[in-house]
Amino acid sequence: MTALLRYVAYNPSTQEYLINNLKIIDSILILLNNYTLLDNILTATEYNSKTNLTDSAISFIFNLSHDFQFLTLIKENSYFSKDIFLKLKYANIDRVKLHAFMILAKILNELDILNLDNIDILTTVFINYLYKAINDPCHSFQDVPVEHLLTSLKAFVQHDEIKDEIAKQNYFKILIRCATQTDLHVGLVLQTSLEIIWSLTFNKKIHQLLITSYDNFIRYLTVLVHSTEEGIQAAAKGVLWKLENELIITKQLLDKSENTINNKDKYDIMISYSHSNYRVWLDF
Length: 284
Hints:
Layout: H1 2-10, H2 12-19, H3 23-32, H4 35-43, H5 49-64, H6 68-76, H7 82-88, H8 94-107, H9 110-114, H10 119-134, E1 140-141, E2 144-145, H11 146-156, H12 160-168, H13 172-180, H14 189-200, H15 204-213, H16 215-224, H17 230-264, E3 270-273, E4 280-283
Antiparallel strand pairs: 1-2, 3-4
Helix pairs in contact: 1-2, 1-5, 3-5, 4-5, 5-8, 7-8, 8-11, 10-11, 10-12, 11-14, 13-14, 14-17, 16-17
InterPro entries: ARM-like, ARM-type_fold
């Protein structure tokens, strides 16, 4: 049953069936509201029959949420509650925790995201899965592809603490790899990677890191600004604009500071005199 749940939600032909049989979605959401299953998934440290069922139900909801029509139907469903997934993010099993975060990325508003806690755990879970997925021949880990990981991370990266965590843990190089490793560029992987990096340039540490340590990447961006894909072109231009704009501002501040120092050495009044006739004059 668990494998069937994942397949049904991900397959386009079966999704057509679900549109006409929405009670199936009702049943899955009722299952996720079951306190016994919820308590089990929050305390379990390894898979069992109950955790498998809950995990598959979460995967079912997540896979449907890629379609805007289904996402709207789920959010409007009377059995739906974001509190379910806010609880599931405390699960000990990483895959359950990840899917909870990925669903939250789609349903939370900006204020909700900014008020999230456990930012270090959120960031680490995403980056660990991303690292394993980009090193997998299929560019997926535990049925979660690189593109889905990046799309969800993009929603969260507006959070300043996540930017700080990425900088602190040196996770940035993994995102650079997503943007530059061409065999990963399936679907929106390249565009989403660039959009995340653009957002990260607003972090001072990452901004400085890009300028000082990623010359090749900056040259790569100058090529991407000529991309025929508007999204890629816009994101590449955005990163370059942020880097160049900060450099201009920094130069202006340095020039202003230097001029201020130089002006301090100048006198407003100079007194001159002639030894021959002792005449004195003032220069202003």
